[in-house]
Design a protein that fits this description.
12% of the residues are buried. Among the domains are: 144 residues; 124 residues. It is globular. It is mainly beta.
């Protein structure tokens, strides 16, 4: 036979770029498995590559330990930017310079299975570390974070379960000015779940700190809730919340949620509590890695009655940058006003150990004849090395225009130095000033200086100590009264110690000396001197259960005023580094040496403690 072969070559435009991936997994016996993943994507404006390894060790039918490590180069999805304040978004190419790695180790242990009662008691824990430049599907909110968590679930009956949880997250990527750089959540919860309804009780402590380590918020709450699935798409919740510690926030809430589509949800919510009443209805639409939301609110609280309409959006514009925008129209007893907000943050890794964060925000507030603009710029620089030095400084300046144009400057610097593994030197400086730009008058000023030394031996945990000195100058805005420009100066020296007397007995001590000077124009300064002494014994009475008894004395020498009393507490150590406790404070003053004690703290309390 005779064959004629013709070859023809062409480059089809549709296949100039390719995307492919592979996943391999190898089982080694019955208990060990190894896996590898590779993805190459050239379809975007810049190439994207993902490489990963993982391993799994099975300790039983329902128990396993897993580890994962991955590296990415480039961005796996488009980035969106808005030119109209968040109303619409358009896709823009990424820089192509994004690069990072991620690591995760987790354990999911069915402890009940080891004793012939599977699914009765489960213990879960994980550690996770994601670089700011690491991209993978669905990890946008976790970029630039270090996380760790522990959870225990005890199924008492088929419908009743007890949950204990402790989680900590630290952001290593971009942190907005005044944003939360570190959060900790601790909770204890009981749930009863049926097919279409459920009920639960929970105790919760939530704490957040900024990137300088300063406390932003801390709350302790108790809550009871009931939910019912009224239909396949409609869910109703009823919740009652009581404040156990921190700012008062008692409230009752009814919440309805209806899922129209997978990416679109409608919500309605009503709340009545100690801070006021509110009702709102809204919709949230997911758009890529960002979101667009709209809400209508009606509020009646201490600020009066008002209604508000809010439309906003938030989206990343790169691995280390975020842009956000919000519009708000408000109408209340004081009249109507409109607020428009636009902000952006950016982070740079200058050299190993040095990190620079810059952010800017501008807001326009319009109400009646008042047109006010607020703008702020923030610059933060941090440094850490392996010799024990950690330093953070953040500078912020704010401008406000309107009836009284103002300028506000804020500065925070904090330094920690580890002399050796057991001794740490601490230093802190905080300053803020508010000035009337027309008259040049300083309306308010706050200045805080502090030094300290901490002794925490690494070879044993029998004795720990913390000594601190702080000086705070507080000049508050004038109230318009004849005696204006009040100013106070506070000097506090404190020593906290902890000593393990014997194996089951711990002795805690706190000594604090405070001098306070109140200054008013035209009146001689008023000085006061106060001692605070606290002695406490923690006694382990049975396994993880301990009993604490505390005696407090607060004495003001100038007025010969002495207050004293007892505090008792029962504590339960759920973990080596975590315990919860509850008790009753028979005194009417706080253990905080800076507190003015102008209100009583007598009563029941819930305490959650953690160390790491």
């Amino acid at each position: 036979p005779v064959f004629v072969q013709v070859d023809y070559e062409a480059v089809p435009r549709a296949f100039e770029k390719t995307s492919y991936g592979a996943r391999a997994r190898r089982q080694l016996g019955d208990h060990v498995a190894l896996g590898a993943t590779y993805v190459e994507d050239e379809l975007g404006a810049a190439p994207y590559q993902l490489k990963g390894l993982d391993a799994e060790i099975r300790l039983g039918a329902n128990s396993r330990i897993t580890t994962e490590y991955a590296e990415s180069d480039g961005a796996d999805s488009a980035t969106f930017v808005s030119e109209d304040g968040g109303v619409s978004f358009t896709s823009v190419p990424t820089t192509g310079l994004e690069k990072g790695s991620a690591f995760k180790a987790a354990a999911d242990l069915d402890v009940g299975e080891w004793f012939g009662r599977p699914d009765r008691f489960r213990l879960r824990g994980y550690v996770k570390d994601l670089d700011p430049g690491f991209f993978s599907n669905g990890n946008l909110t976790e970029q630039g974070t270090d996380k760790a968590g522990l959870q225990a679930d005890w199924k008492i009956t088929g419908a009743d379960t007890v949950h204990l949880r402790r989680e900590r997250a630290e952001r290593t990527g971009v942190t907005p000015p005044g944003g939360e750089a570190e959060t900790t959540i601790s909770s204890a919860q009981w749930d009863r779940r049926k097919d279409r309804w459920g009920v639960g009780v929970e105790l919760l402590e939530n704490e957040a700190r900024d990137d300088a380590g300063s406390l932003l918020r801390r709350s302790q709450l108790g809550a009871a809730r009931f939910w019912s699935k009224l239909s396949e798409k409609l869910l109703a919740r009823l919740e009652r919340q009581e404040t156990l510690g921190g700012p008062a926030n008692d409230q009752t809430t009814l919440d309805l949620e209806y899922h129209v589509l997978r990416s679109l949800a409608l919500t309605a919510r009503g709340t009545d509590g100690s801070l006021g009443r509110s009702a709102e209805a809204g919709a949230v639409l997911a758009v890529g890695d960002g979101k667009v939301y709209a809400t209508e609110r009606a509020i009646d609280d201490r600020a009066g009655e008002r209604t508000a309409t809010v439309v906003g959006a938030r989206a990343p514009i790169g691995p280390n940058s975020t842009v956000y925008s919000e519009y708000q129209w408000e109408d209340g007893n004081a009249g109507g006003r409109q607020v428009s907000l636009l902000g952006v943050q950016r982070q740079w890794e200058i050299t190993p150990g040095f990190r620079l964060v810059a952010g800017g925000e501008t807001a326009d507030v319009t109400g009646g004849s008042l047109i006010r603009r607020r703008s702020a710029g923030t610059l933060s620089l941090s440094y850490s090395d392996d010799r024990g030095l950690t330093a953070v400084t953040r500078q912020q300046i704010r401008f406000e225009s309107g009836t009284t144009p103002r300028e506000q400057y804020l500065s925070l610097t904090q330094i920690d130095y580890h002399v050796n593994p057991s001794i740490t030197l601490l230093g802190k400086f905080r300053y803020s000033r508010t000035r009337d730009r027309d008259s040049g008058v300083v309306e308010a000023r706050l200045e805080e200086r502090g030094v300290g030394v901490a002794y925490r031996p690494v070879t044993h945990d029998r004795f720990n100590a913390l000594a601190r000195y702080s000086r705070v100058l507080d000049r508050r805005p004038p109230s318009g009264a004849p005696l204006e420009e009040p100013e106070s100066v506070l000097d506090v020296t404190a020593l906290d110690t902890a000593y393990d007397v014997v194996r089951r007995v711990e002795w805690l001590s706190k000594l604090a000396w405070r001098t306070q000077e109140e200054r008013l124009d035209g009146i001689p300064p008023v000085r006061s001197r106060t001692w605070l002494v606290i002695q406490r014994l923690n006694i382990e009475i049975w396994k993880q259960i301990a009993y604490g008894i505390e005696y407090r004395v607060l004495q003001q020498r100038d007025t010969d005023d002495r207050r004293q009393g007892w505090l008792t507490e029962v504590m339960w150590s759920l973990h080596e580094n975590f315990r919860i406790g509850g008790g009753f404070n028979f005194t009417d003053f706080s253990d905080d040496a800076f507190a003015t004690n102008n209100y009583s703290v007598t009563g029941w309390f819930l305490r959650v403690q953690g160390k790491y």
